[in-house]
Amino acid sequence: MRRILADALVRHALSRIGLYLFAGLMLVFFALPLLWLVLTPFSRTPAYQITAPSFTLHNFRVLFDNPFALRSIGNSLVLAGGTAVLAVVFAGTAAYALSRVRLPGRDALLYAILLLSSIVTGTAAMVPIFLMLFQLNMIDNRLALILVLTGGLLPSAMFILKDFMDSVPKSYEESARVFGASPLQILRHVVAPVVRPGLATIAVWAVVQVWGNFLLPYILLHDQAKQPAAVIMYTFYDEGGQPNFALISTFSLLYSVPVVVAYLIVNRRYGFRFQGGIKG
């Protein structure tokens, strides 16, 4: 009996050790890139390796001397913010209409739009999009790029927001209608506050999708002064493909700051409890 108990204790201890070892390896795996991101910009000899930095701001001075680096982060903010606003407005109104208006085959239509958007990706549609914008003389136009990015996100955004719209009791709207509220006032003052977590979800999701998008801005924006950070970072490699670690490490740190700030703000406001609808 004692031997069986001892074997069970040994197996339990070994399993716990294995679990902690696995957790430690995962922690190291994910922490190393973050350590490189935080430490390398302050190193006098930035490289692939992570070393204790001999503190210097020289890399930041090199980055600030680049005429397109900081401007590209501003361009990314414009593209991400503009796309998020349009995606929230268009997807919100479309999802509200799909939720309230009874149309034959409505759900099938929504699923078909979502399926087609998954099959016909932005990469597959790149040639016709480029030709269309070229004929409209809208190449190098940031508004055109925002519209293209918004169009690519709308099917999924509508699909997500429709569930939030369905959770809003119609009695709320009927009460507002009794007091003479117009449909636009009902949508703005009654429905929007209730589905605000869903709208925040779409806004954050749109920002993340646009923030790291490389292909569409690279093809549709030729002027370096208008290109976002994801494209400008590509220029930090020389003709032989060797990275300029001073620029890349420092730029990566600054490039991450807006996303981290957005995460902290949204997490503080919603705590990532994005379930919508009515409590109680």
Automatic annotation (TrEMBL):
Domain ABC transmembrane type-1: 73-266
InterPro entries associated with the record: BP-dep_ABC_trans_perm, MetI-like, MetI-like_sf
A cellular-component GO term for this protein: plasma membrane
Topological relation to the membrane, as annotated: Multi-pass membrane protein
Superkingdom classification of source: Bacteria
Gene3D superfamilies xref list: MetI-like
Subcellular location field: Cell membrane
Transmembrane segments: 20-39, 77-98, 110-131, 143-161, 198-220, 245-266
Any one of the GO BP annotations: transmembrane transport
Pfam families on file: BPD_transp_1
Keyword annotations from UniProtKB, A to Z: Cell membrane, Membrane, Transmembrane, Transmembrane helix, Transport
Signal peptide coordinates: none
Chief localisation class: membrane
Family according to the record: Belongs to the binding-protein-dependent transport system permease family.
Protein name: Sugar ABC transporter permease
